[in-house]
């Protein structure tokens, strides 16, 4: 198998990674909500407008999933990722409405090698997504596990 | 019915159970989390996870489904004085942990515990309601947990 582009060594503390952008359509908002968050403001334009969200709005978990896909495509699928034990914090700061374009960026906060498992390292990140007006709509802090280049060989 | 009773403060409630089938695990992953251990049995067997398992976001989203259905049923079933409280948006969550993989074919049980509610000075008539969400595998081991808060419109009630 070809060597992955991103191993533990390749994440530099302080570096900021461009994760690309995604247009959020009404169709996919409704599709996600029908399956996973069937509240009226995620299913129906009029109900969304009448709610505090102000329009047909993506489920917060849909926003998380949109972020996950951007991160997968930007670097995670071409990395030595060993998964993540969880998410420290997510902030849904503003509604994500149908027609919004979200642009994601991730900053490396810190990294350390595992003391119990040689060749495994933990990389902490803070990510943000902004909409087409430059408003921050989403923040996420988490730690991912990555193999070192040597361990992934 | 008091607001505490309505919100289930101090109460752990089972809100649903779901069997994660291979097909839906792969369909979710293809859209949102296309890592090999969520897409392909053989790749999953060779991975650190040891078998096809659901994206952690799939598990979290399934919690949301059961929580949303339970909340909507609760609003319909309101028997207290005045209009039923209304659930609003959430500012986010903390301390989400994927404690064990959710493997293909496992039936996962979801539970919510009402922790507290406090009035919002910035939004009269609304409270911030905090919960803990959890999910358990067939052996009773916890596979997922997180802490969440959401706005609830309660009007000028005093309980």
Automatic annotation (TrEMBL), chain A:
<dbReference type="InterPro" id="IPR052342">
    <property type="entry name" value="MCH/BMMD"/>
</dbReference>
<dbReference type="InterPro" id="IPR029069">
    <property type="entry name" value="HotDog_dom_sf"/>
</dbReference>
<dbReference type="Pfam" id="PF01575">
    <property type="entry name" value="MaoC_dehydratas"/>
</dbReference>
<feature type="domain" description="MaoC-like">
    <location>
        <begin position="21"/>
        <end position="114"/>
    </location>
</feature>
<dbReference type="InterPro" id="IPR002539">
    <property type="entry name" value="MaoC-like_dom"/>
</dbReference>
<protein>
    <submittedName>
        <fullName>Acyl dehydratase</fullName>
    </submittedName>
</protein>
From TrEMBL, chain B:
<feature type="domain" description="MaoC-like">
    <location>
        <begin position="22"/>
        <end position="109"/>
    </location>
</feature>
<protein>
    <submittedName>
        <fullName>Acyl dehydratase</fullName>
    </submittedName>
</protein>
<dbReference type="Pfam" id="PF01575">
    <property type="entry name" value="MaoC_dehydratas"/>
</dbReference>
<dbReference type="InterPro" id="IPR002539">
    <property type="entry name" value="MaoC-like_dom"/>
</dbReference>
<dbReference type="InterPro" id="IPR029069">
    <property type="entry name" value="HotDog_dom_sf"/>
</dbReference>
């Amino acid at each position: 198998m070809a060597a992955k582009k991103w191993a533990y060594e390749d994440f530099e503390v302080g570096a900021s990674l461009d994760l690309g952008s995604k247009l959020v359509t009404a169709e996919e908002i409704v599709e996600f909500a029908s399956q996973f968050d069937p509240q009226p403001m995620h299913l129906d334009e009029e109900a969304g407008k009448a709610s505090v969200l102000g329009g047909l709005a993506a489920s917060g978990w849909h926003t998380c999933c949109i972020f996950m896909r951007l991160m997968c495509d930007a670097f995670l699928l071409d990395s030595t990722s060993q998964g993540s034990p969880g998410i420290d914090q997510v902030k849904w700061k503003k509604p994500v409405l149908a027609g919004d374009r979200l642009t994601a960026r991730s900053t490396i906060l810190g990294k350390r090698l595992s003391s119990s498992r040689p060749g495994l390292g933990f990389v902490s990140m803070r990510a943000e997504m902004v909409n087409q007006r430059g408003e921050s709509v989403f923040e996420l802090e988490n730690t991912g596990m990555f193999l070192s280049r040597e361990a992934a060989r | 019915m008091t607001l505490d009773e309505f919100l289930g403060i101090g109460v752990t409630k089972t809100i649903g159970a779901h069997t994660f089938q291979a097909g839906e695990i792969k369909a979710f992953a293809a859209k949102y989390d296309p890592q090999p251990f969520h897409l392909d049995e053989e790749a999953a067997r060779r991975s650190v996870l040891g078998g096809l398992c659901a994206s952690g976001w799939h598990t979290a989203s399934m919690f949301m489904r059961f929580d949303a259905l339970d909340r909507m049923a609760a609003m319909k079933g309101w028997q207290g004085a005045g209009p039923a409280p209304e659930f609003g948006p959430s500012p986010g969550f903390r301390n989400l942990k994927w404690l064990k993989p959710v493997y293909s074919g496992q039936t996962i049980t979801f539970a919510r515990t009402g922790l507290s509610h406090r009035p919002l000075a910035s939004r009269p008539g609304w409270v911030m309601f905090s919960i803990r969400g959890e999910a358990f595998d067939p052996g009773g081991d916890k596979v997922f947990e997180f802490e969440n808060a959401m706005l609830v419109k309660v009007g000028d009630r005093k309980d």
